[in-house]
Amino acid sequence: MTRQVTAREAGLMSCHVCGQLARSPHGAAQRLRCPRCGAPLHLRKPASITTTWALLLASALLYIPANLLPMMTTASLTGSQEDTILSGVVFLWESGSWPLALVVFFASVMVPLLKIFALSYLTASVQSRSRRGLLQRARLYRLVEFVGRWSMLDIYVITILVALVQFQGLATIQAGPAAVAFGAVVVLTMFAAMSFDPRLIWDPLSDPVDGDPVDPAPERPAHD
Amino acid sequence: MTDPDAHATPPADLLACHDCDLLQTEPALAPGETARCARCNAILARNPPDSLDRTLALTFTAAVLYLIANLYPLVGLEMQGRRVEVSLFEAVHILWRDGVEPVAALVFVTAQLFPVLELSMILVVLLPLRLGRVSPRLATFFRLVRSVQPWGMVEVFLLGMLVSLVKLSHLATVILGTAFWATAALIVVLTLAARAFDTRLLWQLAPGDEGARP
């Protein structure tokens, strides 16, 4: 594995948008653009680790009000009731739709938490230049990227509930302050996943360790 | 590490994995084949058959479905003789009016604005390509498509609708509107379109790739 050559080692940068390879000038701090599509070129995403930490911290903080404050207020003839994310899950469970209760619990409670923990672990492991579990960490990052959008679920549930239950005098539903906090958590964790550069996971492999000779022959990709 | 010809362009068949930066030679792919990174297994390149025509056809279909999904009522509710029906935009408007503007904006952007931006920009990029007229501004539009893509969440929106309807089914009669079914169909078509879209095709046809054509 240590004999494989990365674009960085070969003095090349690949464009984030179109994948075009370009020569990276030595020690240059000027703004480079992709010769093919014009996107800004970077060897790695700029300030990836710092940005990811900042966004993770912000989302972890907002995760607290998102779960503690009411997500919605239902006013009906029998009085008004406030629901948090969790009490909404409990309501679904008790009313017999436990598959949906699981879906909502997973999308709204577990996914944001999982994203925050997984990205923290990935960023910390990259900072300590860990060389262990590379493939597992690459897979974990892909999972975080794939699953992240689904935590928007509760935002849409609220939207439809608020829009439909507008029977003045009979029943109305209003969105609570947790909705804003929760929406912010979803957006911030998505930005955190985007600012993390998965190539940093593999970079420690090209750290000089035992003077392994570098084989310049490019690897052949696997077919399937 | 050392390179004798530091200013030459890298070989055309060379590509770096976007996930782990490993340099690899790009293989010739038969239609339907996928190349994966030898080190991290990320998808490097796909060769969907008949990509340009299929993507265009599916994107047009998606555009029509998108119109239906946004013009007609999504869902309705009937309670003690009173009936309420909302379209997506009305739902966003109600949220905004209720004072949760950030949430309303988020829903508008992810379920309405970005999906239509993505669809129209794919058309803006692919239609001229299909007609053989290549615009130099194509690359900019494609960059926009790429930055907008992760934020279009029509499929999550549909699941959200389902969850809220299950919640409401206990207190009122739920009506599924035309737009609901159009949204469901839209998700299927969008998925197929994304599968049919071969981004490499775009860069092979596009100009600016100096010396690519005689």
Automatic annotation (TrEMBL), chain B:
Tell me yes or no: is Membrane among this UniProt entry's keywords: yes
Q: Key word Coiled coil present in the record? A: no
> Which sequence ranges are marked TM in the entry?
56-75, 103-127, 148-166, 172-194
Q: Which UniProt keywords apply?
A: Membrane, Transmembrane, Transmembrane helix
Q: What is this protein called?
A: Paraquat-inducible protein A
